[in-house]
Amino acid sequence: MADHPYYREHLAFLRDGGAAMANAYPRAANRLARQGFDPDVERLLEGIAFISSKITERQAASVGDICQLLLDVLFPHYLCPIPSMATVELSSDTPSVVPRGTEIWSVPVLGTQCRFRTAMDVAVGDLRIEELKWEARGASSHLTLEMSGETWLRHGRGARARGVRSGGGRLADEQEAAFVLHLHGEPLITYSLFEWLLTALDSVELLGDRGRVIARLPARLRARGLAEQEAMLDYPGGSFEGYRVLQEYFAFPERMLYVEVAGIWQALRQQGISDRFTLRFNLNTERGGSFVVTGSNVRLGCTPVVNAFSHSADPILRDLAKIEYRVRPAGRHLHYEILRVEGVSGRTRRGATRDYSLLSELDREGGGGFAQLRRGLFDGEVQTYMRISDGGELPPDDQIILVDIVASNGQLPRALGVGDLTRLAQLGDGSPVPAALVARNITAITMPVPFPLGEVLRLRLVSHLALTQRPLTELSALRDLLDLYNYRTIVDQQSARAHQLLVDSLLEAQSEAQQRLFAGTPISGELTTLLIDESVVGSGPEAFLLGCVLDEVIALATPLNVYSETHMRRSQRGDTLRWPRRLGPERLDDAEAREWES
User: Fold this and answer.
1) What is the pLDDT of residues 454-481, one digit of tens each?
2) Which of 306, 317, 357, 495 has the fewest C-beta atoms under 10 angstroms from its C-beta?
């Protein structure tokens, strides 16, 4: 207690302030100025200092409680830690679709298997990239994939007609119409490929024997991983999806490096190909680097995974003499961490049940009981506490409180490495796991990141509230938004320095109102132009990935029935990146949109 700042402050005040009081009012307080050491007097002073310091500490903590209360109501996603993440490669001898939400368990760590779940539907089978060729010729480059997979191609071509179900997964139309490539490896290579495939693609060709072009595919690839149905972090209802995109980008940027190629299965059916084919991407890489792309840089059957799963807390016996209860994950407490509380209910010995709404989901008109959460940091561990309100009714004295949670394995995944996620526990749709299905993580597992607490949380709440009063197309608003959603800067100084460089790389942000005709209807829009110094953020391709994220955030934040368009000028290269016009999450067809003049 002697090291407690409030205690030292109050004890010093009693000693030093007492002497000052005696000098100011010698007749009323002359004994306070007397020197000497009396153990009984010292104990009395220390006791008073202890009591007053605890009162001050609780008053200071109440400010943090109010901040948490406001965040629970206004931004309920903000008080969730960010769990560990990784990339997993799935393979199988038989074609199937591994649905989103499939659980993959790790090797045991201190007797506990860490549980991860997939974020995307993944089409798997015997389709393989037999050889990858990278040819750079002057201002152009060619990425050639030689692929084989007799069973996969045979089922893929006939799945639409026969409704093939193999290994518990249905080959849906979206898997038949396109397949997804994951860009894996060194950031300079993968970020450059990501930019070129989305911005510098001249054509996509299907090659037959002796390299002869037998079909041309649509030369527009689609980035995967930004949509809500492919989210890694499950946001509570009512939270803005753009914040989630930012959080995932900062926590695990590799989850963005997925591109979808359309039209392959139709071309294969038309050409009668059933065992092997070659796919060539012709790229305009005039400003490209001198690196070499290898076979490990392009992968099939990959998906991001996150250490989050449904769990329950230890039952809590209602005690009418207690105000607050500690919520502990069931099992070995140190091996689990609460990410979010999903639901709270009470049950009596007679079987009567009652649901308690969370404060963030409370129906304020209907009233009734509710549960209020409070988080605290103790010895490096985030602990969750809960208060139960019965809405003015008399609470039962024999009630058991049951709490459903979304949990992670806390710090346990830090002990895992590449290849440690191997056990498929359950498919996302509840069907049994096929024996031929194999999983393996091909990236290191990221460290979990706690959410901000204490003084940092108070400052961020004020910043977040101020942000709601400014358009996100302002430079200062964009910078503040980036600061708010990179949690790693709180615990990692190197990440904090890198983040500051990223924020400083944004030099300008301008917005301009527009009007265009779309399908014969005039629509208002907003063009946002960003100026970035790509040499500060790291490289031009890294700036492009950041631009993809900001384009998504701006599009989701644009008002209803107003389209958005984002441009990014790179100051060092002197070029301008342009993203398609969007109406919320949907793209506007450029062929149908034109400038509208009144």
Assistant:
1) 788 889 999 999 998 898 889 999 999 9
2) 317
> Could you read off the pLDDT of 86-109 as tens digits, one per residue?
999 999 888 888 899 999 999 999
Query: What three-state secondary structure class fits 281?
Result: strand
| Angle separating helix axes 475-484 and 455-467, nearest 10 degrees | 140
d(CA 308, CA 233): 9
Instruction: Quote the pTM value.
Output: 0.86
Amino acid identity of residue 32, one-letter, is L
Question: What does the alpha-carbon distance between residue 142 and residue 538 come to, in Å, rounded to a whole number?
Answer: 25
256 Cβ neighbours under 8 A, 6+ residues apart: 194, 223, 225, 226, 248, 249, 545, 548, 549
Low-confidence ranges of the chain (pLDDT < 70): 1-4, 27-38, 61-62, 151-178, 287-290, 362-367, 379-380, 589-598
Look at residue 594 in the predicted model and tell me its pLDDT.
41
Q: What is the pLDDT of residue 465?
A: 94
Give, as one character, the DSSP assignment of residue 581. P
Q: How far apart are CA 511 and CA 563, in angstroms?
A: 13
% of the chain surpassing 70 pLDDT: 88
Token duo for residue 101: 């939400």
Report d(CA 448, CA 107) in Å as an integer. Answer: 18
Quick one: 141 exposed, middle or buried, by C-beta within 10 A (0-12, 13-18, 19+)?
A: buried
Q: Determine the distance from the C-alpha atom of residue 313 to the mean position of all C-alpha atoms in its chain, rounded to a whole number.
A: 24
Domain coordinates in residue numbering, the chain: 5-74, 85-307+415-441, 310-408, 455-595
- For residue 498, give every residue at least 6 positions away whose Cβ sits within 8 Å of its Cβ, in sequence order, or none: none
Task: Please state, in angstroms and rounded to a whole number, the distance separating the CA atoms of residues 14 and 12.
Answer: 5
Q: Is 240 helix (H, G, I), strand (E, B) or coil?
A: coil
In the block, tokens 């002359």 appear at 30
Q: Are strands 370-378 and 353-358 parallel, antiparallel or unpaired?
A: parallel
- In single-letter form, the type of residue at position 192 comes to S
Residues 6+ apart with CB under 8 A from 484: 460, 463, 464, 467
